[in-house]
TrEMBL record:
Protein name per Swiss-Prot or TrEMBL: Heparan sulfate 2-O-sulfotransferase pipe
Database matches in InterPro entries: Heparan_SO4_2-O-STrfase, P-loop_NTPase, Sulfotransferase
Listed transmembrane segments: none
GO MF: sulfotransferase activity
Glycoprotein is among the record's keywords: yes
Membrane topology: Single-pass type II membrane protein
Family as reported in the entry's similarity comment: Belongs to the sulfotransferase 3 family.
Pfam families: Sulfotransfer_2
Compartment(s): Golgi apparatus membrane
GO CC, alphabetical: Golgi membrane
Organism the protein comes from: Psylliodes chrysocephalus
Lineage summary: Eukaryota, Metazoa, Ecdysozoa, Arthropoda, Hexapoda
The organism's place on the tree of life at top rank: Eukaryota
SUPFAM superfamilies the UniProt entry points to: P-loop containing nucleoside triphosphate hydrolases (SSF52540)
Keywords: Glycoprotein, Golgi apparatus, Membrane, Signal-anchor, Transferase, Transmembrane, Transmembrane helix
Length: 381
């Protein structure tokens, strides 16, 4: 029978050829990067849970001379002590979970802040803590700002799930109770806004990103190779349109995930202009009035502890599952194709992210206050 197949030509469609080429490129780069970074990955496998005071973002930092300098939770604690506010901190005054009228979490996750990891953690917790787990399907075009009609539809969808449960979607803050429906428990995560925009920049250029998109939506055209190869530092230094980050600028589309605060500000037109006071104040108000917990990626131990104590029905045992299972064996969405960006370039970008940085610091201080209100032994001095 072999002679029947000799000389036979197999003709592949253009779509299949593109997919094979993408897979080959992705596999080659994947193997190269993983070989190069083997030592780093081995060190990451050694991560174990530690007291909050021992984690780098929360630890006590000693200077070479003079009095000690404090960072993270310690810095907030010293500030509150100096103003007499430390003694008045109470978890009941800092927890919006009690405002919820339905035992349902709405996680309107921000991209590139570790939300995939938190989502995986919640999926595992749903099996252990017995609650429903629901997430939005993959979208061809992610629409995060909705019309009032679509907001009402989303609010109805969130309310339709049987409690206890969680619903997860990339979308701006949607006030479910404003549509006459029971208030859910809102949670979210934030990240240093400059690190986040760098992460997004390289995430949408990673080969595996387009492999996944091509598989899900075969008719999506491949991007321009020049755009894929564009370096972030060169983009900033050359004042490329994509990396200028101008105050008040309004842009939509795949390249405009610069406005972390918009996921808290909501759907109002005032939330659209980049790095403005109006958007900042709306986002702050939503966090204070509506969100039970807004975690911080760089302070994960603190975040997990606050979630366990402020939303215990859903997050009981979260720290153990994260450190014993997810962080050690299931790194999620880590982009090994992202090169190091110099502090000089980051500082250029920071100058245009002043309101976004202020919002990030606001969320961080609120998280610190929630943690300190618990009066845990490791922070008693």
């Amino acid at each position: 029978m072999d002679h029947l197949y000799r000389g036979r030509r197999f003709i592949l469609s253009k779509r299949t050829s593109e997919l094979i080429a993408l897979l080959a490129l992705s596999t080659t780069l994947f193997l190269y990067i993983h070989t190069r970074d083997l030592n780093t990955k081995l060190k990451e496998m050694e991560i174990r849970i530690q007291p909050v005071s021992m984690i780098s973002s929360n630890q006590l930092v000693l200077s070479d001379s003079g009095p000690p300098a404090y960072t993270g939770v310690k810095a907030t604690m010293k500030l509150l002590e100096s103003t007499g506010q430390m003694s008045t901190l109470e978890p009941s005054l800092l927890n919006n979970t009690k405002k919820a009228k339905i035992n349902l979490i709405f996680f309107n996750r921000v991209p590139k802040v570790g939300s995939q990891t938190l989502m995986e953690l919640m999926r595992r917790l749903s099996m252990r803590n017995n609650f429903g787990f629901h997430q939005d399907r993959v979208q061809r075009v992610e629409t995060i700002r909705l019309s009032p009609e679509d907001q009402a539809i989303l609010a109805a969808l969130v309310s339709s799930y049987d409690p206890p449960g969680v619903y997860i979607k990339h979308v701006c803050f949607t006030n479910v109770s404003s549509f006459g429906l029971p208030e859910p428990i809102y949670i979210n995560l934030v990240r240093d806004p400059v690190e986040r925009v760098i992460s997004w920049y390289y995430y949408v250029r990673a080969p595996w990103y387009y492999v996944e998109r091509k598989i899900a939506f075969p008719d999506i055209p491949l991007p321009d190779p020049k755009w894929l190869k564009k370096d972030f530092e060169d983009c900033v230094l050359s004042e490329d349109r994509e990396c200028r980050y101008l105050k008040g600028e309004i842009r939509e589309g795949i390249g405009d995930h610069r406005r972390q605060s918009m996921f808290f500000c909501g759907h109002h037109p005032e939330c659209l202009p980049f790095n403005t006071e109006g958007a900042l104040e709306r986002a702050k108000r939503a966090v204070e009035r509506n969100y039970a917990v807004v975690g911080v990626l760089e302070e994960l131990n603190t975040t997990l502890t606050v979630l366990e104590n402020y939303v215990p029905r859903f997050f009981k045992g979260a720290s153990k599952i994260y450190w014993d299972e997810i962080s050690r064996y299931y790194p999620i969405n880590k982009n090994n194709f992202k090169p190091t960006v110099s502090e000089e370039v980051k500082n250029i970008v920071r100058k245009n992210f002043t309101k976004e940085i202020e919002f990030y610091e606001f969320c961080k201080q609120r998280l610190h206050k929630q943690y300190l209100a618990l009066k845990l032994p490791e922070l008693i001095t």
